[in-house]
Amino acid sequence: xxxELTDVNKIYKxxxxxxxxxxxxxxxxxxxxxxxxxGPSGSGKSxxxxxxxxxxxxxxxxxxxxxxxxxNMTDKTLTEYRRHTLGFIFQQYNLIPTLTVQENVEVGRQxxxxxLNMDDILxxxxxxxxxxxxxxxxxxxxxxxxxxARALVKNPRxxxxxxPTGALDxxxxxxxxxxxxxxxxxxxxxxxxxxxxxxxGEMAHKVIRMKSGEIIEAxxxxxxxDPEKVSWV
Length: 233
Ligand SMILES: Nc1ncnc2c1ncn2[C@@H]1O[C@H](COP(=O)(O)OP(=O)(O)OP(=O)(O)O)[C@@H](O)[C@H]1O
Known about the structure:
29% of the residues lie in helices and 29% in strands. It is α/β, with parallel strands linked by helices. The chain binds adenosine-5'-triphosphate.
């Protein structure tokens, strides 16, 4: 799934104060790539992901996802787009504490018209043998695997990840990155990863660097590193 942003602006207003969270952002993300979005806190990374994911609307400019323009999509079409095309993964996993692993993943499956087989996905993320456990019985890395399974079972063409390893230690974080790479290669999923960790840029096909709402740098990596080999900062 390819993504093309042209001169995208997003301004948040609270009272008299305006925050220009995205300033004339233009970027191409080719299909089937892993993209790392880097930048300091408040630089606009989540805003960029949220407008691409149709969670938030941009104020001006154009966003094209494959051949579809998000700009004038009705709320209904945007909901369909989020439901059928996207998977989201967050730093805090957002699992439902009263549901088992299997039941949490079932929530994702129910949202899709074209879901993948639940046990296959649980096996691929290494959680099949723990499918009857509750989130509190799992480590952070295991909970993130379940969150990835919940996103993947929908069979999304685009996976949007906001600090997916932010709560994890280096060893576990690298395992999660390896899983994202595996997902990208196995399912041809385009994967966008927001991170403070510059090392994650080393495994991406493309790196986008943001500062104060602007995309200040974007480059392709000739030879993305294996996730196990990236530096961890
Ligand atoms: N809903 C909102 N209402 C008002 N201002 C917002 C809102 N969301 C974000 N902002 C502001 O927009 C700017 C960009 O925020 P954003 O969350 O996109 O940055 P970020 O790079 O993802 O930061 P972090 O790494 O801390 O998550 C910040 O100044 C933030 O305070």
